[in-house]
Amino acid sequence: MKLIITKTYEEMSEIASNILLGYILSPENQNIAITGGRTPALMYEKLVTKMSGLNISYNTTFYNFDEIAYKRSKREGITISDLRSYFFTPANIPEENIHRLDETNYKAHDHLIQSRGGMDFILLGVGADGHFCGNLPNTTQFFDQTTQVVMSDAMRQNVGEFHFSDPQEYPDTYVTMGPRSVMNTKNILLIANGKEKADIIKRILGGPVDPLVPASILPLHPKITILIDSEAASELDEITINQYK
Amino acid sequence: MKLIITKTYEEMSEIASNILLGYILSPENQNIAITGGRTPALMYEKLVTKMSGLNISYNTTFYNFDEIAYKRSKREGITISDLRSYFFTPANIPEENIHRLDETNYKAHDHLIQSRGGMDFILLGVGADGHFCGNLPNTTQFFDQTTQVVMSDAMRQNVGEFHFSDPQEYPDTYVTMGPRSVMNTKNILLIANGKEKADIIKRILGGPVDPLVPASILPLHPKITILIDSEAASELDEITINQYK
Amino acid sequence: MKLIITKTYEEMSEIASNILLGYILSPENQNIAITGGRTPALMYEKLVTKMSGLNISYNTTFYNFDEIAYKRSKREGITISDLRSYFFTPANIPEENIHRLDETNYKAHDHLIQSRGGMDFILLGVGADGHFCGNLPNTTQFFDQTTQVVMSDAMRQNVGEFHFSDPQEYPDTYVTMGPRSVMNTKNILLIANGKEKADIIKRILGGPVDPLVPASILPLHPKITILIDSEAASELDEITINQYK
Amino acid sequence: MKLIITKTYEEMSEIASNILLGYILSPENQNIAITGGRTPALMYEKLVTKMSGLNISYNTTFYNFDEIAYKRSKREGITISDLRSYFFTPANIPEENIHRLDETNYKAHDHLIQSRGGMDFILLGVGADGHFCGNLPNTTQFFDQTTQVVMSDAMRQNVGEFHFSDPQEYPDTYVTMGPRSVMNTKNILLIANGKEKADIIKRILGGPVDPLVPASILPLHPKITILIDSEAASELDEITINQYK
């Protein structure tokens, strides 16, 4: 594990965009799963700028690692929509380089990834409650799940209401790569910023492996980088910082 | 994770020796930590036979991953003595390709491994109580330890008396690579055989991640192979076998 | 590069089967291209024995790296037929784990391999004339070919008559992975045995990179192992042996 | 091989600095050899900016891959001096993370790199005459050299006078990693810009492997990225660009 602490959110976003770009420019095909949400917004903005004008073909396939469908509308789910507006559309990623995980194909997801050579890189955020992807404190008993469907009640209990303006759009279930699928990735980058993440970062780096803090499993991955701004690092003690930096 | 079930202990030993030999014959330098104990005895016998007469130079460095010193005698500790008699001596491994972990150098162990390019491969056994290396049920609260010294009372409580004929040789402490150090290895092979391991294998593959079963963390490693004979696999159900085989 | 010299052909075959088995047992999916011909015959025999009775699912896909079709018969080509009789059939490799390269699909071959995560391992023989796969002294001007079709006149000039009892079966062309495709593999194992290979082994290990000795390019691969018996090594000098062993 | 063509030198430098930064920020120790000369000047400037203010410890060791000593002065050689002024000093790289290759230690260089886990990444420039590192058209007959000492007459013939203001400082020899050492690196990035490199880039990507064009060997590396600006790409045809981009 490597811990990188930046002064600002802007600097965290710059570094994250560089790391992600490194994978995209690899001479080998890459399978990359990336996160939606607010944390990576500036990172994607920077990445789109860096990629514009490059005369390359993409030998990267991008994946969403969870998906929350709309119950009534036929439109695409929340995660993939996020990724499109943040990244795929402005960066002109060809549709054939985008793989949508959803409720129709999740059962074959881990096998598909394996048949394509494995997941090379996953960019994760972390919730203040310790969730990553859709692995919530009350859905991650054993850490042994692969890609799965989860009852969305769990999400309501943990991370508040869905991001739906219309409550009738609440789905009954959502899909997510499970802890085992994520740990089976070759390289992980976890990003976090802001004071509201300081407590969970402290628990992840210094506390026990605990199903009630799902992200507590992540530091045991052999190739994980945790990239956070100074606010998210504000509750870490010197010993922890020096041990992992 | 890949699960390989062999019919017999002999076959398990044959496969394990082949996998280990593959690392030893790699064109790149390899750092390899290997286990003592009874489980690998036949594997080492087979490996020594396979290696005899090969006109190669060894670009492998071998490590012990734990060590129990004798309190009074000046002789080498239990683990390295095991490895010498099983493997290093009959295979004529040059002394410069052997790194002894002990109480004088354990603090620098993880850093040393990193400076040599990381641990490429670790061969582990597992105790009926779920311990691996010196990580015992009552010493592994957080899974976050690196290479460390442990009070040997813990060992007495868990795995019975030390293997000392003379009780005055009982040391007060022993050293071991911790869960984090082991998880930081690039490839892991866990071997187990016999009915007395059937219950712990079932708990490792099907149960929660639990500090009281230290080896329960291992299936979350992205590149672990679990190689067991049919007796050790006898309590696994078909679903588990088909999921991982 | 690592050079391994065994006393006998039998020992060379044993080591080669162990290395190949190591890839087949990997916890990750593997793409493996393997050679036909006489050199690996005993290796396949040993490999089949080692694999029999293992209760594993194969997450390896096997590939032929060249193919010579029959001109008139509808039967499968020479290479894949060799591989079936030596290995696929006795080892019960499921058909879905076999990918046949032939004249209908060679153009997409390199792209297909990339989309599956790259070729992990290739087992090569070498001809007394320095050819590897179908890369012959008079077809390999620039070393920059990928998988391609070649006029079979070249083969007649170099490696004698085809292995056809009926001359009317001689095809006009054959297909082969080119030097670039082979060099793009993650790991290479080159095997050779017998006095008739001693001269070419000497030229490969000690001579210039020369399109008239196609295999002369191979020692520049970062992860190649050259595994030969003492007869094939009989013209190497001590300096060369010590440099690479 | 992956070919990346940028519009400008500035953009080439930006991308190169991102790729290099990706290795520096790896959670694993990295051995990285980097180039002096004019081509990377802006890249280092950008890299220093990106690295400033990062609260990380460096687990990267940096290497020069060739060295031209001063004959009379006791000062450090030309290459390491270049690297210090461009990068090590402004980026505050600790001295313990810098390994100087010179005439006192070159014989042990390849072995040292291997004992540290291998060279992870090398950043190369290319001369208009096709040289890379100190591998010149008239010193690279067989492509099989490892790190070596070379008579500096060769350099005078090929790349003009040394960069010495005082002719009495001309050394009789210089040291360089040879073609085999460079090809033995895990990942290669070759950068080039400007019209004076257009012809050599064309020959490297489209011509034969030729000892008189030492860099012609590089495209056969399985993990090389060639990153050039539009001027250096100006003599490439569409087929070549589409094949490799």
Automatic annotation (TrEMBL), chains A, B, C, D:
Keyword Hydrolase: no
Keywords linked to the UniProt accession: Carbohydrate metabolism
GO biological process, one term: N-acetylglucosamine metabolic process
Gene Ontology molecular functions: glucosamine-6-phosphate deaminase activity
CDD domains assigned to the protein according to its UniProt record, in alphabetical order: GlcN6P_deaminase (cd01399)
Superkingdom, taxonomy of origin: Bacteria
Keyword DNA-binding found: no
Residue ranges annotated for the Glucosamine/galactosamine-6-phosphate isomerase domain, each copy included: 28-218
Alphabetical list of PANTHER family matching this protein: GLUCOSAMINE-6-PHOSPHATE DEAMINASE-LIKE PROTEIN BT_0258-RELATED (PTHR42892), GLUCOSAMINE-6-PHOSPHATE ISOMERASE (PTHR42892:SF1)
Protein name: Glucosamine/galactosamine-6-phosphate isomerase domain-containing protein
Source species taxonomy: Bacteria, Bacillati, Bacillota, Erysipelotrichia, Erysipelotrichales
